[in-house]
Design brief:
Strand order of the largest sheet: 1-2
Strand content: under 5%
Largest sheet: 2 strands, antiparallel
Shape: globular
Length: 429
């Protein structure tokens, strides 16, 4: 009953937004709430189920966005002719160098392997840059104002969502193999640093995804609003509902995204609940609560941590691909730790760590507040300063402080929850 009541409250808040503001605003909040709920489920798998402190959520979300470009954007033939083959050869060479270094580390005697690995990596780096740099320069010189990158595979954009999960899984495996043996605080530092590396690559490697020049006009699973507006049949149906064709087209597209995102969220939530209540889920919680006892019972703790770390990262990658599809563009500079790491953690903590429904609830509730607190603060400050003179320093200070209401509100909510409901609004059972 508590869960139903809280979800009903969130639904009432979103419906109230539609009634008091606009249904377009309500659907925007709903769609991003659905995406945020999937991200929260991913973090909840890692932290709530296994106790892994991953502060690199932003990096996996960004990899999902990159997957949309690599999967759905049409290839740029001129760029491939200029240096595509050489760029691929450089990537293969880099992978071969890393593999050779790993084999040398494992196969050589302890006294020799350090120098051998250092020599392999040094020579490999020089060779890698010698092959890659001319290729990237040639690719980025191909109509840099419009392209300047290789493009993608030109496949349907919906395929980019699972590809985003697979790309995040591959990077999570590499991170996990090197960092999961660290203590929780060092793991947090490592994942945060690796996430920043991923964002730096997206920003600086123009040949991959145009860097800070962004990739716009990404393919969509739904028609463009302008195409709907120019369809006579759609215009007639909109008029029959008493809507102008512009409003009807935007609502149609946003509702379509809502249905797609809801289907993904429901599928992920069902699978997460089945995993939570399975023997595997009980084993993961036992490892979380007492690693030493689980190891004494013969459980491979490191392997299980790697497994759940990959699964949680897959969900973040899928959500990142969904979000980029919704935005219709990839903007590497928009990936900030505040939005794509801190806020997701607030969602999990407020909703209830270890409870999948709590993670979903936190995703919707915190995203609603994140969006609506600033306009609500504007209205509140306007009400408070209504009787003050226009040149009042206090009035100007209060009105200028509205932009900080989001951070203040998130901090207050987090403190209140940790004080009065430390296990979250829907605690783990």
């Amino acid at each position: 009953m508590r869960a139903l009541g809280l979800f009903a409250l969130v639904a009432a808040l979103i419906l109230g937004t539609g009634v008091l503001q606009s249904w377009n605003s309500a659907l925007i909040i709903l769609n991003m709430g659905l995406v945020s709920a999937i991200m929260s489920l991913g973090v909840n798998l890692q932290w709530g189920l296994a106790g892994l402190f991953n502060v690199g959520v932003m990096g996996f979300v960004a990899l999902g966005g990159l997957a949309v470009v690599l999967t759905s954007v049409a290839p740029v033939p001129a760029a491939w002719e200029a240096g595509g083959g050489r760029a691929i050869a450089a990537l293969i060479l880099g992978a071969a160098v890393i593999t050779l270094a790993a084999l040398a580390w494992r196969g050589l005697a302890h006294r020799r392997r350090g120098l051998a690995v250092a020599a392999i990596l040094l020579v490999g780096l020089v060779a890698f840059r010698w092959v890659l740099d001319p290729a990237t320069a040639s690719i980025e010189s191909v109509d840099p104002a419009a392209t300047g990158y290789l493009g993608g595979l030109g496949l349907p954009v919906l395929l980019a969502w699972p590809v985003g999960g697979l790309l995040a899984a591959g990077v999570a495996w590499m991170i996990g193999k090197t960092a999961l043996g660290l203590r929780s605080d060092y793991l947090a530092i490592a994942t945060l640093g690796i996430a920043e590396i991923i964002i730096a690559v997206l920003k600086n490697e123009d040949w991959l995804a145009r860097g800070v020049k962004n990739v716009i006009g990404l393919p969509r699973p739904l028609p463009y609003e302008i195409d709907l507006q120019q369809t006579p049949g759609f215009a007639e149906r909109a008029a029959g509902l008493g809507l102008d064709v512009t409003t009807a087209s935007t609502l149609y597209v946003k509702v379509g995204y809502s249905l797609l995102f809801t289907a993904v969220l429901v599928a992920v939530l069902v699978l997460a609940q089945l995993a939570l209540k399975s023997p595997w889920g009980r084993m993961m919680r036992a490892i979380r609560d007492n690693e030493e006892a689980a190891e004494a019972m013969g459980k491979d703790v490191t392997a299980r941590h790697l497994q759940v770390f990959i699964l949680g990262s897959v969900l973040c990658g899928i959500a990142g691909a969904m979000m980029t599809t919704l935005d219709g563009q990839l903007t590497p500079s928009s990936y900030q730790p505040l939005r794509y790491t801190f806020l997701i953690w607030v969602m999990v903590i407020v909703g209830g760590s270890g409870n999948n429904l709590g993670a979903v609830l936190g995703g919707f509730l915190i995203w609603f507040l994140w969006v609506q607190v600033e306009p609500m603060g504007q209205w509140l400050m306007g009400l408070i300063t209504a009787g003050m003179a226009d040149d009042s320093a206090i009035r100007n200070h209060l009105l200028d402080s509205v932009q900080h209401m989001r951070l203040l509100t998130m901090g207050v909510i987090l403190l209140l929850v940790l004080r009065f409901a430390p296990r979250g609004l829907l605690p783990e059972k």
